[in-house]
Amino acid sequence: xxxxxxxxxxxxxxxxxxxxxxxxVESAKQGARGLVLHYLGDPETEAEVQSLRVYVETFSDAKAxxxxxxxxxPETSTKIVDVGVKTFGRIxxxxxxxxxxxxxxxxxxxxxxxxxxxxxNLDGSFFVVQAVANQMxxxxxxxxxxxxxxxxxxxxxxxxxxxxxxxxxxxxxxxxSCAVALxxxxxxxxxxLPGTIATDINKEDLSDVVKRENMIKRTAxxxxxxxxxxxxxxxxxxxxxxxxxxxASLLVDGGLFVNLQ
Length: 261
Description:
Organism: Sparassis crispa
Largest sheet: 7 strands, parallel
Distance between the termini: 40 Å
GO molecular function, one term: oxidoreductase activity, acting on the CH-OH group of donors, NAD or NADP as acceptor
Keywords: NADP, Oxidoreductase, Rhamnose metabolism
Protein name: L-rhamnose-1-dehydrogenase
InterPro entries: NAD(P)-bd_dom_sf, SDR_fam
């Protein structure tokens, strides 16, 4: 077990499964003393996040606090900070990860799908980044690391993602501007851009065998990503190894973006 996050308190939104869950497990392995695990609040995600809490507290010295709520509601972000501070006294790292991608055809897309995707992915990211940044500014010692989980979709298009890709591009832009706005408070802000990661968010899309195989063939490393592939770069950005890294975007895609042919 390494200690890249020794004694740090790490807050992760959308922590019950996928990338968020992997980031929580890796943070605990890397010595985090506290985890603030956010989840939506339905029975399924509650069971998942509670099992995650038990798991990390069993194999590591980390303690975990769980917080439920719709990230699109700004009150949820306030509650996340309140629980983190009440339980651990501070927040050192935020992983703004919660997001959705209900695949839909552009011309017939119902407006509520656009609205909900924007509310969760972009509005939710803004709310939690703002709330946690205020805490990082106020705490002693001041500062922290904010990591926005964007996507390769911030850089390229997708036929059934006309509502999703703009939100991920916006998260990348949000991190760049926050790096400028928050640097004077010793707060770093960076974006991670996952490629095609096999998670619940794209499970149905990747069930198309032909599409899945074509995606694998386009990836230089010859496989789809798994959530653990994102957790390592996230831990790096949260750690003091990245103490001079802010406003950066880290593409973690197995070579998908560069493989034109």
